[in-house]
Write a structure and sequence with these properties.
- By secondary structure, this protein is an all-alpha fold.
- 64% of the residues lie in helices and 0% in strands.
- It is built from six helices and no strands.
- It is globular and about 45 Å long.
């Protein structure tokens, strides 16, 4: 009897989970993940104290601001590649973005441009390839984790973690 109740509970749980999950197309997943990671990074770029934008975890590493510029470089690459341009993943020079305001504006523009390109990619083309979007999203997510370490090393809580406190 106990086994039957456990099995029934398990079956009901699976049914409930499947009812709440929605099947997303590949195009929706790619667009959603790209937008999600970029919105979290943009929130960090806006939130991190300007006087700490030059902070590095170690001397040989990029500063917080340089990491944001590096992530924006990936978005610029994705926008161009997504439009079919022949492009290399070239780094934007962080020296061209000296202030927090400039870095945030760059990140906003890179997200806007790449997002506009991604929106115009026909859904059916994702059946052939999810690049450059998957590559750039993964790259940005890796750096998001690094930025969390910058926050924690400065005794700060990342914006995405604040609602969990």
């Amino acid at each position: 009897m106990k086994t039957a109740k456990i099995l029934m509970l398990f079956t009901l749980t699976l049914a409930a989970l499947s009812a709440f999950s929605q099947d997303r197309t590949t195009a929706e997943s790619v667009r959603g993940h790209f937008a999600s990671v970029n919105s979290r990074i943009l929130a960090m770029a806006k939130d991190f104290p300007e006087d700490k934008y030059d902070f590095k975890l170690k001397p040989e590493m990029r500063t917080f601001g340089e990491v944001i510029v590096h992530i924006a470089s990936g978005n610029v690459y994705a926008a161009k590649a997504g439009r079919g341009e022949k492009v290399n993943w070239d780094e934007l020079d962080p020296k061209d973005y000296k202030t927090k305001t400039q870095v945030v504006a760059l990140m906003e523009k890179s997200i806007s441009d790449a997002g506009a390109t991604l929106k115009n990619v026909p859904d059916q083309s994702f059946a052939k390839s999810v690049e450059p979007w998957l590559e750039v999203t993964e790259h940005s997510a890796e750096h998001y984790g690094l930025l969390v370490a910058y926050y924690r090393a400065n005794g700060l809580v990342p914006p995405a973690s604040r609602s969990n406190q």
